[in-house]
Design a protein that fits this description.
This protein has 323 residues and is an alpha/beta fold. Helix content is 41%, strand content 18%. The protein folds into 2 domains: 183 residues, Rossmann fold (3-Layer(aba) Sandwich), CATH 3.40.50; 115 residues, Phosphofructokinase domain (Rossmann fold, 3-Layer(aba) Sandwich), CATH 3.40.50.460. It has 11 helices and 11 strands. The chain binds 6-O-phosphono-beta-D-fructofuranose.
Amino acid sequence: MDRIGVYTSGGDAPGMNACVRAVVRTAINNGIKVTGIRRGYEGMIEDDMVNMTSRSVANILQLGGTILKTARCEEFRTPEGRSKAMENLKARGIEALVCIGGNGSYAGALALSQEYGIPCIGIPGTIDNDLYGTDFTIGYDTAINTALDAIDKIRDTADSHNRVFIVEVMGRDAGFIGLDVGIAGGAEGIVIPEDRDDVEKIMRHFNRGDKRSKSFSIIIVAEGDEIGGSQELTERLRTLHPDLDIRTTVLGHIQRGGSPTARDRILASRLGYEAVHGLMKGLKDVAVGIINGSPNYTPFDTAITNTKSVNYELVRMAEVLAR
Ligand code: F6P
């Protein structure tokens, strides 16, 4: 393997830069050249690529976002788009790919590999933590700490005004952020897609007049919940309990930015290092992850088709601790 390409794709996540740095330096240390592909699959199609050295990844470990930029690319979903991308990769002598992103990014890499035989390895990068084959994804730890900081602040004002706050966190299809942030933030209610009874539980909580001595409430809702999000939950609660003083906050993309936590930097560094070693061992079409502290490789199709589950015991624990 003379040269590999590395790119970030889909939603950015804090720690992606630490991962790019690890991929570039591990490869170079093993005599492999690296091309950085800018803007993910879009840059692959438009030949937006740059040769990287150890110095081009200096001083990026602590930066949020991604220096390689990222995109969600519709054209790459077509065989014509992938054919253009492959021509560019060939012309630049790129023999294997490291893809840092989520499920959609893995699917793109797998399609390219199946059609053209180029070996690809995926690294889980998304704040949602919803990828199979790893305990944690790059960016998740930073995102939950960012959300938690905001919730602690909301708690101050909620307490002062005796209000109910409905706080929406990210998580397109999954409740990992919602559950962990709800537990760490001491929320009275957690509404996530994995729990079908959660909204009813919250309604029962207010029906019982279960506010007891508590003067305020924080309810966390994952954007991906089937109720539709914080606005819908607010309307439902307001209709049933017009007496409550309710406010709604959407944390949104704040959760995607910021300097990565130590945990995310270390995770990203390990995954980047292991991905290059995986390619050197001849692995292809797998996603690297860390499970119970050890590196692990999951075939792309397994990683794409399986869903990682939240810990339901934690859902029950959160209910008990909120009373
Ligand atoms: O997948 C990460 C994520 O931040 C989700 O939590 C969210 O639903 C989505 O990306 C938002 O994507 P975009 O920035 O493209 O609107």
